[in-house]
Amino acid sequence: MARVLINLPARAKRGEVIEIKTLIAHPMETGYRVGPIGTAIPRDIINRFVCTYNGAEVFRAELFPAIAANPFIAFFTVATESGEIAFSWTDDHGETQTEVRQITVE
Amino acid sequence: MKAVALALVAAAAAAAAAEIAPENRRSGYEFAAPETRAMQDDDSANPGILGVLQGSALWAAKTGTGDRSCADCHGDAPSSMKGVAARYPAFDPALGRPVDLEQRINRCRTEHQGAAPLAWESADLLALTAFVAYQSRGLPIAGSKNAELRPFLDQGSELFHRREGQLNLSCSQCHDDNWGKRLSGAVIPQGHPTGYPVYRLEWQSLGSLQRRLRNCMIGVRAEPFEYGAPEAVALELYLMGRASGMPLETPAVRP
Hints:
The complex is a heterodimer of chains A (106) and B (255). Chain A has 106 residues and is mainly beta.
């Protein structure tokens, strides 16, 4: 499991626009580099990021090889109701890491 | 007459290589772009914090034949490690020379945990070092007053002021005499090691002060010190003394 930092308000007012910031540890190896003995280093990047709010998708991003290691993704959404905000990152191996955070909307 | 001329030349040389006055000292932070500074200032955007988190897990993990974690001896890091990084490199009586924080962690591993030392620049060693140094964030660097360090400080100072490499430059010629000017596109900072291990955008990872020193040495086309070489530690010691009183920023973000 890669280390993840997620920053979002624990509480928000209904209808408030909230900023969500995410940071995940990942090498984002481009596939264009060669190792010390000249062999290509295989591509290994996170290629997809999805955020769902109580099951409904609110943000999605496709990532490409030019994105730096440890990708930082920040975005905004509207706080509609209390519940779970889930974040998932999918890499080139097809593995998905999901993190869930709670938000209380009053 | 000749003696006077020589004395004048010596005085001019000394003036050119003058140390930076304490009130003029600036951290590399102040030379960084606003976006880079914002990244360092926001713990949810600073990628170095990922290393600190990893270090926090390693701190509590039992390892080696001793089956002990760092926490088993040192307890709660925020209290036990507070201020420690600010006074490293420190004199090691057993070795009779100073060791830096990475070497101290590895000596702890081999002597007390019965574990293999972590490789230089490995993610685990950088993470543990960053975690320990993070406990001193905001505290002033306390250049060690240990009298036994004096010869090593002198050695570090000599290395800092000695020209080397095919470009025949000393550290001092850039970082004392020409800081604030540009070396191609980049501003020359004063070379204060205030935020190590540092997250360097160029590296896309955390890296140690020794890695940074090797970078500079390769830049002037000198043969870099091996990782852990006594000369490298002496230079680290001198640099920490030179930055004495400046607050630690670990994990700093630099371009």
